[in-house]
């Protein structure tokens, strides 16, 4: 089924436009909540992945978060410059770079994990449980290829 045609397509009403606007608003909310921590909403995926021990290489983080390698490098440079992560070469395959949180990075990631739910819950405050479940279901459906 086709939902858009050249005749009825209006950017402002499109799913892509609305999703991007929602993403930008959540990102701004996160940035506000993280103010003073020197990290931004865009760093949350990296910090949470490393805190949980998953996706611990730049390449796997790029795939997991859906960002290109250039942006990933810039974000990792920022976090490394802040003393939140360290990069090291893999002992088995020197081509692989491993990422780890420093003690300061672990403390920051844990603080982010405390703040992020409040930000998301505030944005979702008018949703019922059923609406939240349906939103999650539909968003995951959009991600399917």
Automatic annotation (TrEMBL):
All residue ranges annotated as the HTH marR-type domain in the record: 12-144
UniProt entry tagged with the keyword DNA-binding: yes
Pfam families recorded: MarR
Coiled coil: none
Gene Ontology MF terms: DNA binding; DNA-binding transcription factor activity
Top-level division of the source organism's lineage: Bacteria
SUPFAM superfamilies (UniProt xref): Winged helix' DNA-binding domain
Keywords, alphabetical: DNA-binding, Transcription, Transcription regulation
Name of protein: MarR family transcriptional regulator
Organism: Paraburkholderia rhizosphaerae
């Amino acid at each position: 089924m086709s939902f858009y045609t050249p005749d009825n397509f209006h950017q402002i009403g499109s799913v892509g436009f609305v999703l991007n606007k929602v993403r930008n608003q959540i990102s701004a909310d996160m940035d506000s909540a993280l103010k003073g921590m020197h990290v931004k909403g865009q760093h949350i995926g990296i910090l949470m992945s490393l805190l949980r021990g998953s996706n611990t290489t730049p390449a796997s983080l790029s795939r997991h978060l859906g960002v290109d390698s250039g942006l990933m490098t810039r974000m990792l440079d920022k976090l490394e410059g802040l003393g939140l992560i360290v990069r090291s070469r893999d002992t088995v395959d020197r081509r692989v770079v491993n990422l780890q949180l420093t003690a300061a990075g672990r403390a920051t990631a844990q603080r982010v994990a405390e703040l992020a739910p409040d930000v998301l819950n505030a944005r979702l405050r008018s949703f019922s449980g059923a609406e939240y479940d349906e939103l999650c279901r539909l968003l995951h459906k959009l991600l399917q290829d």
